[in-house]
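Continuing the series of single-chain predictions for the mutant panel. This is the parent chain; the variants come on the following pages.
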Amino acid sequence: TGGGKSMLFMLPTACAAAAGGGLTIIVVPLASLRSDTKERCDAMGIECVEWSGLRPHKWASIILVTPEAAVPDSFRDFINRQRAIGQLDRAVVDQCHVVLDLGAGGGCRSRISGLGGLVKAETQLEYLTATLPPADEAEFGRLVGCRGRTPGLAQARAQPRGSGAGRRGPTNVRYEVQWYDGRAEEEEDVVAALVEERQEEARGRQIVIYCGTVRQPEQYAKRLGGSCYHRGVGSDEAKRAVVRQLREG
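Parent structure:
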């Protein structure tokens, strides 16, 4: 994480725009990430908009689209037109590990089919993630329609806390494992105690607790007095407000 994955599409897009054209399609599954991507593109002077089937933005260098919006014929027709005139440079799926979560539920098949449609666009495809386990790569390829292909993989690995200098990997990520007795201790109590302990070290910085269910962050927010974020937490503006709070303090 924080290793500059976005530069893989922002830099070539900026160069293409300076040369007079080129379009990059970016599929961003999460609303908060779409806002963040647009802000960073705006800061670099890259014309970036969110896809609208009613008002296609033919002048933009980057178009952000949700997996759902990639399904309708209007979007596919737009992509085909851009490819036909030589304007479609690449399609990017950011945070592509989310595809595995989408594929776990039968109600999300249409979202997956939208991503599979990008494979048929016959353009350069980039899948970006920092958290896709190697063991899940085959299932990921099946879901996005890349079976029978050998994708090129560029990987960097996180390093354990206290690992020696000179090892390659993200410099802003460290991890450690804390064991606890699940028979004698409740997970919520252990996590809450750990957060309270780390607050002394954090000195006003943000602490984020990643949870496996929607119910868990609601419980921790109530117990520790923090903000709660998940897909059902509110409107897009409410989600953006929570993300701003996390980023700015």
